[in-house]
Amino acid sequence: METLKKNDEIKLNIEAITSEGSALAHYGGMAVFVRGAVAGDEIVAHIIKVSKNYAVASLKEIIKPSEFRIQSDCPVSSKCGGCSLRNMTYEEELRFKRQRVRDAIERIGHLDVPVMDIIGADEINGYRNKAQYPVLIENAQLKTGFYAYKSHRIIPCENCLLQPKEFDDCLKAFEKWVKASNITSYDEKTGKGLLRHIYLRKAPKTGEIMACAVINSNSLPKQEILVEELRKIPDIKSICFNINKTQSNVILGDKTVLLWGKETICDILLGKKFEISPESFYQINHNQCEKLYKKAIDYAELSGSENLVDIYCGAGTIALSAADKAKMVYGIEIIPDAVENAKKNAQINGIENARFICADAARGAKELEKMGICADVVVVDPPRKGCGRELLETIKRMNPKKMVYVSCDPATLARDLAILDEMGYKALEATPVDMFPRTTHIETVVLMTRK
């Protein structure tokens, strides 16, 4: 086998795209990963790292482009860690994502589950209703953007194609405040500096915008300047700052202080109103979220006589969307503000058959168990790490006839489906939904029934 060395330049035929968006090829039996290439490309690659079992290379030249290759319409997509599929046709992106779900279920879960056609997006740009911008301030100049792949190096990005155009207006307001207030940006190494992130949310249906400065302090200097600049933007309804003094990668701290306007913004999803606080989980792609939740509710097959338990319920979006088809809905969520949002959302929509518990998923499920609540249908929508065995064992004791698993990570989904299969729950069908066009992320909803 030919030995690769750093700085070698080699010809490669790209075979596939990995779950992280890197291209995969083999050279002399060794796997080589290349950012920016597309399956089917013939390229010249420059080796930048060689390990025992694999090598990493940069794309030096495209000898023959793949039939799936297109010209990226973003000037920084090759450097930014966000849109790693922007140089690929959308049809090929959808095929890749569906295959990714299928491969994970087969290879990690060792299960044979039909994977339906992926539900693609009608709009692949401007769909994100939330942005969390890392910041760097140098010579009173604010730089915002996104982290480069596998780093905390900021790639400045103006007019990001995934974000609403109003977010750029908000960033310009923050730039003026930074220049006027002589503040510093947070340094992860020293734990010093004030501004950590700029956090923006937009309610797509109502247009309402929330702007939040995440800071390493209890107070915001020259806050009146920031409020004055942001209020020039027509749809701004909430201006706040969040206090995060922890030395960690977590973006938001536990306390948010309102500077002007409302504490929440309001959106409409599947015909119901939802109040969203800075801490609330709310799917970032509104239109695709409606398709995802419709599929989840279809899978639940509610007749009006069931108790539905929504674990990781956030602001209550799935539970409340399903409430008019169920006897009772119960939501479990660990973030207190999100639970308060969920209760208020039930109230403003006139929903009386909904109850919400503030607890982590496993403890909340145990509380329902102690209350003697019989769960006919359980919906789980966990974070990327999945559910884990403890929660799944609690769900098993609740003995629902049916489960609907909403996942944002095919690998942890496949792991949990295998555990549930051992516990007597068979996965009948999986439907991928493309919530995050031009990125490698994929959402999947799975129907499971008790064996």
Describe the structure.
The chain is an alpha/beta fold and 451 residues long. The protein has helices spanning 90-107, 166-181, 223-230, 286-300, 317-322, 336-348, 361-370, 389-398, 410-422, and strands at residues 9-13, 16-17, 23-27, 30-34, 42-50, 54-64, 130-138, 141-147, 154-156, 195-202, 209-215, 236-243, 255-261, 265-269, 272-276, 307-311, 328-333, 354-358, 377-380, 402-407, 425-433, 443-450. Strands 9-8-7-10-11-12-13 form a seven-stranded mixed beta sheet, with helices on one face. It has a seven-stranded mixed beta sheet with strand order 18-17-16-19-20-22-21, with helices on both faces. The longest helix is centred in the N-terminal third of the chain and has 18 residues, at 90-107. The radius of gyration is 23 Å and the shape is globular.
SSE blueprint:
Elements: E1 9-13, E2 16-17, E3 23-27, E4 30-34, E5 42-50, E6 54-64, H1 90-107, E7 130-138, E8 141-147, E9 154-156, H2 166-181, E10 195-202, E11 209-215, H3 223-230, E12 236-243, E13 255-261, E14 265-269, E15 272-276, H4 286-300, E16 307-311, H5 317-322, E17 328-333, H6 336-348, E18 354-358, H7 361-370, E19 377-380, H8 389-398, E20 402-407, H9 410-422, E21 425-433, E22 443-450
Parallel strand pairs: 4-6, 11-12, 16-17, 16-19, 17-18, 19-20
Antiparallel strand pairs: 1-5, 2-3, 3-4, 5-6, 7-8, 7-10, 8-9, 10-11, 12-13, 14-15, 20-22, 21-22
Feature tags:
single chain; about 450 residues; alpha/beta; 7-stranded mixed β-sheet; 9 helices; 22 strands; globular
